[in-house]
Amino acid sequence: MDLLKGxxxxxxxxxLSDSPSHGYAVARAIRExxxxxxxxxxxxxxxxxxxxxxxxxxxxxxxxxxxxxEAKFYALTAPGKKQLKQAMSDWDRYVEAMGLVxxxxxx
Length: 107
Prior knowledge:
The protein has 107 residues and is an alpha+beta fold. α1 (7-16) crosses α2.
């Protein structure tokens, strides 16, 4: 399923709100938590991680994965947590509004 524009950033922020992680683990978590519906390709994921880092919403540091490979780990910053809170509120309103329209007028 294709992601709507702007959703990848929110999915990344939400995934990293649980704990710092490297890119592959972020993509895997999104895929697993969406019951294999949302597949994030590397070509979209890594530019998004860099963009979020550049905006100050994520910080990155090098570390070792469970398999011993060196990887960049990303964590939410305070502004990232604030952005996630706002984005989740916006999504709740969006989903509610879409539901109202899709269900049509109530008799």
